[in-house]
């Protein structure tokens, strides 16, 4: 049986730069604490409980765990989980608990629990935002378990406002969340948290609003996991699509129905929550009209929010297939000109060549 | 809506990506919460797997005794579906939805038992891993090397009222496995060597997240909602006419992969899905017995996934398919790569090429053979 790891051994394609980056990352990770984030889509899904429950389990297994911040109002199950854990120097300002960073660093636990990442510290604090406190703890070699709701991620504010009608003042940059060593989705059916969240919403269909936030949180986590998988595959020299995410490649040629193909590609990518790519191959024998058509197509592709690339290569089909393989493409969209290709049948039309080479990918043909 | 439809129980699936991520634990925690709120919850079936934390959670919950099924001189224990229905709680906890019952049981699959319980007006909470979804079977095999045998048709999961993702990081899962929390030591060693490799777990976890997101979205579709930051302002997707996908199946094994893939694509596009087999002349009788069996098996498989099937007769496959497709309002035709190459020599042109030439108003997709590991 072939396995991914055998693949790796056979391929042996680990380039020195990747390995160096990895070695540096390991070195950094050895000094730095590990960041683990519990991501939820609304308050009330149970992030705090998961966080403290893991803290309690680790404590029971002998890890040195302390609590550096709790939420102002905790449920009884959370309080039960925290019981038996050491609480460190939590100060309160205006009802908001503040991490006592120097006290935690002086205590130097292995793991520090910070419930609620998206807080602003009062003026005059060591850092304006709590995530910056957490960063200092990580730099100081303390691992941190923390929690956040999708609604409090900076880059999600426009999306959140479009759904709930309001955005949050205290936010955390998305890169801080997606850059965590580990991310855990805390999922629950919306009915359990509607009661808590409904008060903050602007009317409308609450179940629908929560569903959209929930879907977005799951997809954000999936993207983080996808990057981890890619990094792993790259590190081990595995060049292969695992097909966990749909990636659609639209091949643009001067006369292909690019607008139709791109619109269809966009719709498919959206439905699959996948990625859309669009390429054309720059060939030397193109007429001025062809070049202009390519330019127009590239503009259309950008308007559809596709990742556009202009490829160079004498053999257009081989160039496209190389690109598709190295980008983990799962579906290729290609135009097929009925009249023009009829002549090329004897030597196998470009379509034939593409289909033959596109093993492992679906090829969708758009006649024109 | 009739009264009987309204009384059907609600199905909640706790979806994970591997044994040991905590599906049953979370389900039982939920059961206790319901019980505290005064809901009548019983355990219809529980699989202990020797996991102490989880077993502890069954305390305080009523458990319906299992029934004993004899098969080839051995005794097996299965859920006593009739007893669960007779007890008629508000909610039944039934572990491991993909389970195959021992031969001689009233029904082959646990999901069929669960449907009976739901039909009786009882809510069901159950568990499964993403790799048991039928439409993902080839993809899982390609990326993990594991051919999952116990599968669940996608429509069973689609009909669930709620799908909840149970998440745990692969690292934490591997720790659990090494500590012997998930399996006994010998089994844990074997597991570490095949399914429980980190990249495999990472890939499955991503699939579970995407599957749950898809389940959430399909329960609250928002195409008709006003454009938002998430939507694509450039293309109003809501006004696209509905797709109809036609699968051209044959006796070749790759047809199963075609059916799975077609089902999945159709579901994501919210499209209808149909399948046809074109018999040259003389119907299925002209095939060898093996071929006939294979075609029948593929057609049955498609029907099991709620794909309508038709057997067409015609001497020219491409013409027959396109004629049917046009009459049925099909927008996309899916074929396998085998059909593509097998027909090339005989008809002086590949099936795709001929289909494209005949069906200018449709798109033709040559589906990757995901039943072959590259």
**Overall mean pLDDT score of chain B?**
87
Tell me what portion of residues of chain B adopts beta-strand conformation.
Answer: 15-25%
- Categorize the overall geometry of chain A: elongated
Largest sheet of chain A: 6 strands, parallel
Which descriptors apply to this entry?
heterodimer; A: 368 residues; alpha/beta; Rossmann fold; 2 domains; six-stranded parallel beta sheet; five-stranded parallel beta sheet; 15 helices; 13 strands; disordered N terminus; B: 374 residues; elongated
In short:
The complex is a heterodimer of chains A (368) and B (374). Chain A is of the alpha/beta class.
Notes on the protein architecture:
The complex is a heterodimer of chains A (368) and B (374). By secondary structure, chain A is an alpha/beta fold. Chain A folds into two domains: 12-19 and 29-235, 3-Layer(aba) Sandwich (Rossmann fold), CATH 3.40.50.300; 247-367, HUPs (Rossmann fold, 3-Layer(aba) Sandwich), CATH 3.40.50. Chain A is built from 15 helices and 13 strands. Chain A has helices spanning 4-11, 16-31, 47-60, 76-82, 101-107, 130-139, 157-164, 174-178, 191-197, 206-235, 258-272, 288-303, 316-326, 338-343, 350-357, and strands at 35-40, 65-69, 86-87, 91-93, 96-98, 111-114, 143-149, 182-185, 247-251, 275-282, 307-312, 331-336, 362-367. In chain A, strands 3-2-6-7-1-8 form a six-stranded parallel beta sheet, sandwiched between helices. In chain A, helix 3 packs parallel to helix 4 (76-82). Chain A is elongated. By secondary structure, chain B is of the alpha/beta class. Chain B folds into two domains: 3-219, Rossmann fold, CATH 3.40.50.300; 243-367, Rossmann fold (3-Layer(aba) Sandwich). Chain B is built from 15 helices and 13 strands. Chain B has helices at residues 3-6, 23-36, 52-56, 81-87, 110-119, 137-144, 154-158, 170-178, 185-193, 198-219, 254-268, 289-304, 317-327, 337-347, 351-358; strands at residues 11-16, 41-45, 62-63, 67-71, 74-78, 91-94, 123-129, 162-165, 244-248, 272-279, 308-313, 332-336, 363-367. In chain B, the strands form three sheets. A six-stranded parallel beta sheet of chain B has the order 3-2-6-7-1-8, with helices on both faces. In chain B, strands 11-10-9-12-13 form a five-stranded parallel beta sheet, sandwiched between helices. In chain B, strands 4-5 form a two-stranded antiparallel sheet. In chain B, helix 4 (81-87) packs parallel to helix 5 (110-119) and helix 13 crosses helix 15. Chain B is elongated, with a radius of gyration of 23 Å. Strand 13 (362-367) of chain A pairs antiparallel with strand 13 of chain B, so a sheet runs across the interface.
């Amino acid at each position: 049986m072939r396995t991914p790891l055998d693949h790796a051994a056979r391929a042996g394609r680990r380039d020195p730069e990747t390995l160096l980056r990895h070695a540096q990352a390991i070195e950094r990770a050895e000094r730095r604490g590990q960041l683990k984030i519990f991501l939820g889509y609304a308050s009330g899904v149970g992030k705090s409980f998961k966080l403290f429950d893991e803290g309690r389990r680790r404590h029971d297994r002998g890890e040195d765990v302390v609590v550096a911040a709790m939420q102002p109002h905790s449920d009884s199950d959370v309080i039960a989980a925290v019981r038996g854990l050491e609480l460190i120097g939590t100060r309160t300002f205006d009802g908001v608990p503040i991490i006592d960073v120097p006290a935690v660093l002086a205590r130097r636990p292995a793991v520090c629990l910070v419930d609620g990442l998206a807080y602003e510290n009062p003026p005059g604090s060591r850092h304006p935002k709590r995530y910056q406190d957490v960063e200092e703890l990580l730099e100081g070699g303390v691992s941190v378990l923390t929690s956040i709701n999708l609604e409090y991620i900076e880059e999600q504010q426009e999306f959140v406002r479009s759904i709930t009608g309001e955005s949050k003042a205290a936010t955390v940059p998305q890169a801080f969340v997606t850059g965590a060593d580990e991310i855990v989705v805390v999922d629950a059916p919306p009915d359990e948290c509607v009661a808590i969240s409904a008060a903050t919403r602007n009317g409308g269909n609450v179940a629908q609003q929560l569903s959209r936030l929930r879907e977005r949180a799951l997809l954000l986590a999936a993207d983080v996991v996808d990057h981890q998988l890619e990094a792993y595959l790259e590190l081990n020299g595995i060049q292969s699509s695992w097909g966990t995410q749909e990636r659609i490649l639209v091949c643009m040629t001067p006369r292909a129905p690019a607008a139709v193909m791109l619109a269809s590609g966009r719709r498919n990518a959206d439905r699959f929550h996948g990625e859309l790519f669009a390429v054309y191959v720059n060939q030397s024998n193109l007429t001025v009209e062809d070049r202009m058509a390519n330019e127009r197509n590239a503009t259309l592709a950008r308007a559809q929010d596709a990742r556009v690339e202009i490829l160079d290569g004498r053999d257009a089909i081989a160039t496209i297939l190389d690109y598709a393989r190295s980008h983990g493409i799962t579906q290729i969209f290609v135009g097929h000109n009925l009249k023009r290709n009829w002549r090329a049948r004897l030597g196998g039309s470009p379509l034939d060549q593409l289909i033959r080479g596109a093993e492992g990918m679906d090829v969708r043909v758009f006649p024109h | 809506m009739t009264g009987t439809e309204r009384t059907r129980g609600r199905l909640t699936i706790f979806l994970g990506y591997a044994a040991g991520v905590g599906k049953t634990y979370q389900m039982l925690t939920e059961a206790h919460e319901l019980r505290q709120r005064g809901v009548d919850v019983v355990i219809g079936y529980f699989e202990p797997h020797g996991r102490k934390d989880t077993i502890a959670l069954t305390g305080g919950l009523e458990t319906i005794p299992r029934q004993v099924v004899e098969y080839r001189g051995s005794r097996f224990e299965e859920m006593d579906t009739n007893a669960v229905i007779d007890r008629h709680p508000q909610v039944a906890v039934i572990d491991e939805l993909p389970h195959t019952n021992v031969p001689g049981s009233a029904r082959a699959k646990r999901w069929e038992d669960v449907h009976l319980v739901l039909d009786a007006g009882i809510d069901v909470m159950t568990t499964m891993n993403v790799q048991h979804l039928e439409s993902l079977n080839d993809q899982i095999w390609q990326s993990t090397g594991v051919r999952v045998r116990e599968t669940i048709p996608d429509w069973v999961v689609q009909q669930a009222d709620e799908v909840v993702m149970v998440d745990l990081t692969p690292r934490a899962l591997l720790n659990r496995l090494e500590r012997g929390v998930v399996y006994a030591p010998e089994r844990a060693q074997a597991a570490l060597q095949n399914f429980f490799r980190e990249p495999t777990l990472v890939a499955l976890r991503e699939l579970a997240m995407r599957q749950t997101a898809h389940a959430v979205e399909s329960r609250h579709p928002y195409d008709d909602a006003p454009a938002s930051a998430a939507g694509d302002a450039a293309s109003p997707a809501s006004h696209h006419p509905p797709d109809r996908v036609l699968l051209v199946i044959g006796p070749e094994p790759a047809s199963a992969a075609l059916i799975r893939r077609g089902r999945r694509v159709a579901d994501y596009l919210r499209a209808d899905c149909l399948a046809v087999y074109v018999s040259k002349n003389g119907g299925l009788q002209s095939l060898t017995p093996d071929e006939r069996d294979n075609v029948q098996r593929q057609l049955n498989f498609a029907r099991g996934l709620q794909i309508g099937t038709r057997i067409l007769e015609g001497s020219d496959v491409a013409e027959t398919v396109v004629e049917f497709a046009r009459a049925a309002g099909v927008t996309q035709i899916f074929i396998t790569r085998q059909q593509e190459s097998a027909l090339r020599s005989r008809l002086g042109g590949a099936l795709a090429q001929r289909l494209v030439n005949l069906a200018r108003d449709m798109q033709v997709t040559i589906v990757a053979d995901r039943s072959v590991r590259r």
